[in-house]
Amino acid sequence: MNDELYNKGMQTRRSVLGDAHVDKAEANKTDFDKDFQEYITNNAWGAVWSRPGLTKRERSLITIALLAALGHDEELAMHIRATKNTGATQDDVKEVLLHTAVYAGVPVANGAIKIAKKIFAEEKDQ
């Protein structure tokens, strides 16, 4: 394992998803998925999310569009929640999902909008 890449990935992962989310994921890690967790920490968070070419806000919005387009609702919800850490606003998410409707389809965007509305309403109530 590349400790430097892993540490950079973990730092970025925590800054985007929050300590509570990452701590829970780490606590639930087993021998079965520890290699996968290391892989995503190294590659997604260390090698890609930590690159200087895009801001966390920009990466967040791209990720939301892709997850919505692919119908990955659980991951989409996680990344919509993470916008409070990335600098992406509700208006940013709204615009990305409207844009997603044009290129990935109205049903996909409709489902993603329902998820976003629920999350933003929950956050407002907290």
From TrEMBL:
EC class (word): lyase
Domain of life: Bacteria
EC number: 4.1.1.44
InterPro entries (UniProt xref): 4CMD/NDH-1_regulator, AhpD-like, CMD-like, Decarb_PcaC
A Pfam family the protein falls into: CMD
Gene3D superfamilies listed in its UniProt record: AhpD-like
Domain Carboxymuconolactone decarboxylase-like as annotated: residue spans: 35-117
Molecular function GO labels: 4-carboxymuconolactone decarboxylase activity; peroxiredoxin activity
Keywords tagged on the record: Lyase
NCBIfam families membership: decarb_PcaC (TIGR02425)
PANTHER family reported in the protein's UniProt record: 4-CARBOXYMUCONOLACTONE DECARBOXYLASE FAMILY PROTEIN, CARBOXYMUCONOLACTONE DECARBOXYLASE-LIKE DOMAIN-CONTAINING PROTEIN
Record's protein name: 4-carboxymuconolactone decarboxylase
Source organism of the structure: Panacibacter ginsenosidivorans
